[in-house]
Amino acid sequence: MPVSLGLGLPQMKQYDIGRDVAAVARAAEEIGYESLWVFERIIFPEPATQGLYGVPGLPWPDQYRSVADPLITLALAAGATSRARLGTSVLVAPLHVPFQLARSLASLDAASGGRVVAGLGTGWSLDEYAAASVAPFEKRGAVLDELLDVCAAVWGPDPVSYEGELTTIAPSEVGPKPVRPVPVYLPANSPRATRRLVDRADGWMPVAAGADRLAEQWKRVQDLAAERGRERPVGVCARANARYSAEPVGGAGRAPFHGNTAQIVEDLAAHAATGVPEILLDLQGTTRDASELIDVAAEVYEAARAAGV
């Protein structure tokens, strides 16, 4: 069975958000992509307190200088499409007030006819935490746990009530409700995060950074799910951060999803062989504009399907 393919929407500084989000979303759905995705970066600190992903000395990519708000981007895509699922990969949950984020996701799901998937993470940027002023970085796991509780309450039946460290909801009617409880996907970058995923989430959202590594990670998630008695299957959507090139990228050390169409499809096939059911391909970082993004997305999709991926 072919892997489900998703596409990252244009959010970076080279795109005209008001024009290009709808155009790319509409084209992607027509091409055959089954889901559309956004990510979150809220500032570009100069100088940054820490390197990219918290790695000392690793520079932030220039495209992060301007990244459109993820939920506004998804709202624009929702209005231009009718079938594709609309996902976040990921929202940095502790940068948001839990009650307000739960309501925004519910409203977007209601408006789109039940198409939202909430990929949530804790992030890594100290500067972003300071700018958001919701909670200190040290409490990121606790804030994510509270957000999951608040979402379950807000998306459930009225009257809604909740009391936590950041959130107090008096018994209230809270609407609109999502069409169904929005599926929640979480990363699993530590033993504690993997337990949270298995116990509380609908699915897993890893980075596709090598087929062997993905297979090992997927086995650990499945083993822990069996160990903890999880009965329902764990959904998966692997994020592939692609760097497209018109020419082949040579060398034994070529990073996954860095290369021309044939190389990207080769990597898609290898990662799909691990058994993960869905791969999100984010091509926006190295395409010049929406027209090129649509052309490359179509070329990769058609080549992948022709190859049986």
UniProtKB/TrEMBL annotation:
<dbReference type="InterPro" id="IPR019921">
    <property type="entry name" value="Lucif-like_OxRdtase_Rv2161c"/>
</dbReference>
<feature type="domain" description="Luciferase-like">
    <location>
        <begin position="19"/>
        <end position="238"/>
    </location>
</feature>
<dbReference type="InterPro" id="IPR011251">
    <property type="entry name" value="Luciferase-like_dom"/>
</dbReference>
<protein>
    <submittedName>
        <fullName>Probable F420-dependent oxidoreductase, Rv2161c family</fullName>
    </submittedName>
</protein>
<dbReference type="GO" id="GO:0016705">
    <property type="term" value="F:oxidoreductase activity, acting on paired donors, with incorporation or reduction of molecular oxygen"/>
</dbReference>
<dbReference type="Pfam" id="PF00296">
    <property type="entry name" value="Bac_luciferase"/>
</dbReference>
<dbReference type="InterPro" id="IPR051260">
    <property type="entry name" value="Diverse_substr_monoxygenases"/>
</dbReference>
<dbReference type="InterPro" id="IPR036661">
    <property type="entry name" value="Luciferase-like_sf"/>
</dbReference>
